[in-house]
Amino acid sequence: MTKPTNSAPSQRMLRVGEQVRSALTQIIQRGDVLDPVIDGAVVSITEVRMSTDLKIATAYVAPLGAASHEAVVAALNRNARFIRGRLSPALRQMKYMPEVRFRDDTSFENFRKIDELLKSPEVARDLARDDAQADE
């Protein structure tokens, strides 16, 4: 079997990533992780990316209502071994239970910055100039 030449995730990686995301969401929502930092925040798991061998799962989290995103991500990483043990029943079809790593999801911040740029006066001025030229 040959390796894929592109860097796009395979269907299997995507499917397993979604299963891990769903299982992680249930574990955190049930309150299985007893950590005071996590108890005070609503944690949304936006995406899970699997390594090609399915042994490492990188979970991107967006803590809502938390003072410090870094503190929530650090608390999740401290409890990663416990969480990995709780994943076992949901992922029993897997040969190896993946090691879970948590990262802060900055995509919402990037979207906000792009939105601010698009609404800036400089961009509005350029768009108005382009519209005026198109009308001529």
Q: What's the structural blueprint in terms of helices and strands?
A:
Elements: H1 11-30, H2 36-39, E1 42-50, E2 56-64, H3 69-78, H4 80-87, E3 99-104, H5 107-118, H6 121-135
Parallel strand pairs: 2-3
Antiparallel strand pairs: 1-2
Lateral arrangement of strands in the main beta sheet: 1-2-3
Mean pLDDT: 84
Query: Structural class of the helices, strands and pairings?
Result: alpha+beta
- How much of the polypeptide forms β-strand, as a percent range? 15-25%
Characterize the overall form: elongated
Q: How does the major sheet shape up?
A: 3 strands, mixed
Structure in words:
The mean pLDDT is 84. The protein has 6 helices and 3 strands; from the N terminus they run ααββααβαα. The protein is 51% helix and 18% strand. It has helices at 11-30, 36-39, 69-78, 80-87, 107-118, 121-135, and strands at 42-50, 56-64, 99-104. The protein is an alpha+beta fold and 136 residues long. Strand 1 and strand 2 form a beta hairpin.
Short précis:
Strand 1 (about 40-50) and strand 2 form a beta hairpin. The protein has a three-stranded mixed beta sheet.
